[in-house]
Amino acid sequence: MTSSPDEGEEKEGPVIRDKRRIDPETGQVREQAAESPAPEAPADDGAKATDQEVTALQEQLAERVADLQRLKAEYDNYRRRVERDRVAVREQALGQVLSELLPVLDDIVRAREHDELQGGFKSVAESLEAITGKLGLERYGEKGEPFDPTVHEALMHSLSPDVTETSVVDVLQPGYRIGERILRAARVAVADPAPDAGGESGGDTGGDGE
């Protein structure tokens, strides 16, 4: 029995495939070949729509990032304000407590100046000064320093040829501060530069010469 061209082993050489829909031998309609390539789908706007969606998502992402950056900046500002307020409240409370101790510290200074700081009182005084120093309390006011009305309270004024600017010549009561905050201004005596008496006498001498 002779095999049909589509059956049996493949023959060597070129293969010719008959793609006619009607079989010329049988007159039957052939089924479409499986290997026939499927027709390409017509081009549509899917790719363009996808690009637009990506662009829209990128814009939304940029907006969200900007919102997060603004929120972070606001939070950082809030945190700094809270920290400043916390420090201010602490310094205010500490200042009130230390202000109550200033008269005691004044007594310690006077006792030391009169050589009365001895025995157990000396030990207690030194401990109190050490504790207040650790808390940030600083005593200031020295003879010879320039007069500063923001930290000094002038109780006495005089003229002196020994100064070239308004200066502290005596400290009547030391001042105290915590950092930049003044708890009590230093009460001082100040001296202003004296007029140049020599220049005035020189002018009189010149007048006599005429």
General description of the model:
This protein has three helices and six strands, in the order H-H-E-E-E-E-E-E-H. With 210 residues, it is α+β, with helices and mostly antiparallel strands. A hairpin with a 2-residue loop joins strand 4 and strand 5 (181-184). It starts with 45 loop residues before the first helix and ends with a helix. Mean pLDDT is 80; it is low at 197-210. GO terms for molecular function: adenyl-nucleotide exchange factor activity; protein homodimerization activity; protein-folding chaperone binding; unfolded protein binding.
- Unreliable segments of 5+ consecutive residues: 197-210
Helix tally equals 3
What value does the average pLDDT take? 80
- Principal-axes geometry comes out as rod-shaped
Strand order of the largest sheet: 1-4-5
**Proportion in β-strands:** 15-25%
Broad structural category:
alpha+beta
Tell me about the biggest sheet?
3 strands, antiparallel
Tally of extended strands? Answer: 6
Overall helicity: 40-55%
List the helices and strands and how they pair.
Layout: H1 46-113, H2 119-134, E1 137-140, E2 152-160, E3 167-173, E4 175-178, E5 181-184, E6 186-193, H3 197-209
Parallel strand pairs: 2-6
Antiparallel strand pairs: 1-4, 3-6, 4-5
GO molecular function: adenyl-nucleotide exchange factor activity; protein homodimerization activity; protein-folding chaperone binding; unfolded protein binding
Keywords: Chaperone, Coiled coil, Cytoplasm, Stress response
Subcellular location: Cytoplasm
